[in-house]
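Show me a record, fold above all:
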Amino acid sequence: MKLFVDNLTNVDFSYLHPHRGLLGESWLVQLVLDGRLNDQGMICDFGIVKKAVKAWMDRHIDHALLVPTGMPRLNHRQQDDETLIEWRYPDGRLFRCRSPHQAITLVGEPEISEHSLASWCRDQLLALFPGEVQGLELAFVPERIEGAFYHYSHGLHQHDGNCQRIAHGHRSRIEIHLNDQRDEALESVWAERLRDIYIGTRSHLVDDSEGLHHYRYRAPGEFELQLPSECCYLIDTESTVEQIARHLADAIKREHPGERVRVRAYEGVGKGAIATA
């Protein structure tokens, strides 16, 4: 007998890709439990399943930086309450992140994919359930997007929750309207400009020498990130989705001063902000 839960939750996170570097992602979580029926005629109560899996995902995956420990050119160190990651792009450029332990998840795989991450999570999740549950199938599924989208990472210094982590991210669609008409060509232009980007807040930038951007803040705990400047897009405000939408609307308005501009900017799956200019 099997019990399934489609779209149990979705996770927004960033991870290190062996070629593209820091990459924001958003995946839906699908779950199938295999087992025998208990005295209530159930494998496991749906409420227990959803609560347990979502809590585990929130703690280990959602709004975290996932680092595959088997990837080449990687050094990682944990000491006191911090994790330090240092990695080199194939061309030698530096990526460095220092954060509290809970902001970085070390994944014992050579790289992060839907399949490798599901495999890594599976055994740890199985221990959460009662003995009637004898097997578990887990799948991470990217949202199906027709049209332009981009991967971005950011950190929200002033956020009370896990969004404060300096390197977490999303895979997000973008919709742009000029004079109430959707402009898919312009959407593609902006999606390409923001491809695999870190959206940095100018006040968090402490150094931009030698082709690198170095960000730092306390929120609480010390957060620090260093990566190539060409992988960054600076804005003057916190990088909330509301401020991103406003920034994009204003930037598009400057390029199209005679047009009415409306931007629908997404933050992962099914949520976002609308700004006009």
Notes: The mean pLDDT is 92. The first helix runs from residue 46 to 60. The first strand starts at residue 2 and ends at 17.
